[in-house]
Amino acid sequence: MTSKYTRDGGRFHTGRRRFIRTVAATGAAIGLGGLTTADTDEGFPPTDSTVWGRSVSLGNGEATPFTTVTPSGIPKYHGLLMERAALEGLPSTDALATTGEDEYTDKYGPNGESTNIHHKWSLEFFVPFPETDATPVTFLGLNWNPGGHPPDGVWTVPHFDVHFHMLPTETVDAITGPAAPTYDLLARYVPEGYARNPTVDERVITDMGEHLVDPTVPEMNGGTFTNTLIWGATDPDGDGTAELTFVEPMLTRAYLREHSGTDRRAIAQPDTYARAGRYPTAYAVRDLPGRDAIAVTIENFKQFKGYSW
Fold first, then answer.
1. Are 66 and 77 in contact (CB under 8 A)?
2. pTM for this model (two decimals)
């Protein structure tokens, strides 16, 4: 599928240097320190500094990953733009279970794959982010969960999992579960306020890894699930020690249908990361009326040195 947002009508193959030169030539609205007027929700994401990835079919619309950087190559956003039409016409649990083999066969393709994850049916997509050299982020793992997923009574409502992965697709594709971890997760890598799943045999999830959650979120305490951030971990090099490998906004369809304005929240941080790099410290959900769409982004990237032995 060709993205309607791709500048040249096809995939954007331009390298980072050419991309930065293009951005630098776009005018005074963009300064060396970052984007100014282009950052308003009305013009979001900034046209002249955003590279679009490949669109996928979702419901009655499309969803498209994108990356925005400053002229000096510093990341501003990795994001997913979802047309509001994508919130309607989505496959049901029964459709994924009974017709998935015919309609949803390839998570790398435009229609995704019907798969059983978290003991529930999910429509899954793996889509690369463009321009990923400046951050650890590599690809988008997008899941539509028509029946939600465990824990029962907490996340068992229709929702989307938006995974910003920090590993190669083949590494994540090889993760199977639910299973118990075979590694240690050191306290210095656990984000502040987050905890591991108390059910050890359910910690590692297929195509994702281990999920860490803030136990104070409303739905964990009798409230309503709307918008929750998950941190993920796995052991990518098999050395027996896990590291943070994805960050995941979980958003209910009801929340997205009703959302307006910008809902920006902090991303809890660990004491340190296993690897040096620019990591996101905030995420946002933006209503984009001009596009009749919603953008889910990670942003406010900060440089971390990584752990030194």
1. yes
2. 0.87
